[in-house]
Specification:
37% of the residues lie in helices and 29% in strands. It is built from 11 helices and 13 strands. The strands form 3 sheets. The chain has a 5-stranded mixed sheet. A 5-stranded mixed sheet has the order 11-10-9-12-13, with helices on both faces. Strands 5-7-6 form a 3-stranded antiparallel sheet. It has one domain (5-226, 257-339): Nucleotidyltransferase, domain 5. The longest helix is centred in the last third of the chain and has 23 residues, at 256-278. The chain is α/β, with parallel strands linked by helices.
């Protein structure tokens, strides 16, 4: 666990820091906070962008009084390629060769330009099969995030994506989540990582406490935000406010429901396909969903077969003034909380 390291989740909008450890059935959080990630941090080659992120990280560490130097880094699913595959149990050389072949099927860039990480999810000795999570990321992304934190005075221990952090969080608090969301013991959970520029879906099997399937959608919060801004003739800050406070039960001067309807339909269609294959007991949203919470209500009306909720880890964390401050924003910290549970 995280006695010797903390978790730093750097996405395209926020940089989130979490220092936490499991104590019995709950998490004890000693540090938790977020700051803005500079625009174009992952896409720009300008040194000033990296320098700005270094300053943000140092301020966050100082504000939260973090003294640890070792850090587990988390990068957005948007910038990675994930695949869960079932393969025969092979010797190491054969397995590596097979994995490279599998990776070549879903990575839209040269293999030599990517870093590939493999996590064994399950081994079936009787069937002689192994279930693997293969995660690939551009080398330049890994190098950028490592260099940035090193220049901020930290020692990167590992790098993983959000699906790994979310999966570990669910595996650790499997029974608690089943109870909280009243999920049948024979039913799984679909975790929806609703991010800025995309959304990743992952099916989690409570019976085996492992991820079984994943899928990537090209719809994220940014598309809803842009449509709202254009169709309400407002600036970005106002459009953000409109989405955050919109509630279908209360009158609004802005036709948000009509504005987002085409995107919702597309989102629902993709979600239906993934969900119907797995027949889960619940669909739980994490990450940027707190920026557009009414999306849950809208989706629930379209997908009546499956209960849809926000995965807020509040009930699983020891209460403190810090946690109360972030109570409604905690879904954004789920990947980082999972990162502390390595």
């Amino acid at each position: 666990m995280s006695d010797n390291f903390f978790s730093l989740d750097i996405d395209e909008k926020f940089t989130k820091l979490v220092d936490a450890k499991k104590a019995g059935d709950i998490l004890e959080v000693t540090a938790l906070g977020k700051t803005e990630t500079p625009d174009f941090f992952y896409s720009s080659n300008l040194e000033k962008v990296v320098e700005a992120e270094i300053i943000q990280i140092k301020k966050l560490i100082e504000t939260l009084n973090v003294t640890k130097k070792n850090v587990n880094l988390i990068i957005p699913d948007t910038l990675t390629y994930s695949q869960i595959v079932s393969m025969p149990l092979l010797n190491e050389k054969e397995l590596i060769s097979a994995i490279k072949y599998q990776a070549d099927q879903f990575i839209p860039m040269p293999i030599e330009e990517t870093n590939i990480d493999i996590e064994v999810l399950d081994e079936d000795q009787r069937e002689k099969k192994v279930l693997l999570l293969i995660v690939a990321a551009p080398k330049k992304v890994i190098e950028r995030i490592k260099t940035t934190v090193e220049l901020a005075g930290l020692n990167p221990e590992s790098v993983e994506n959000e699906i790994c952090g979310n999966g570990r969080f669910l595996a650790t608090f499997n029974k608690n989540i089943i109870s909280q969301y009243k999920i049948g013991v024979d039913k799984g959970v679909v975790v929806v990582n609703f991010d800025i520029n995309s959304t990743s879906l992952a099916y989690f099997s409570p019976e085996q406490s492992i991820l079984k399937e994943s899928h990537h959608l090209s719809i994220g919060y940014q598309l809803f935000l842009k449509e709202t801004q254009v169709n309400t003739d407002t600036d970005i800050k106002k459009a953000e406010e409109i989405l955050k406070i919109y509630d279908k039960k209360n009158p609004s001067p802005y036709p948000v429901e009509k504005i987002v309807q085409p995107l919702v339909k597309e989102f629902v269609n993709d979600l239906k396909i993934f969900v119907s294959k797995n027949n889960p007991g619940a669909v739980l949203f994490t990450n940027k969903i707190y920026l557009f919470p009414s999306l849950i209500t809208t989706l629930s009306e379209e997908l009546t077969t499956f209960p849809i909720s926000i995965l807020n880890p509040y009930s699983l964390i020891k209460k403190s003034q810090l946690i109360e401050t972030y109570k409604n924003e905690l879904p954004i910290f789920v990947p980082a909380l999972g990162g502390c549970l390595r």
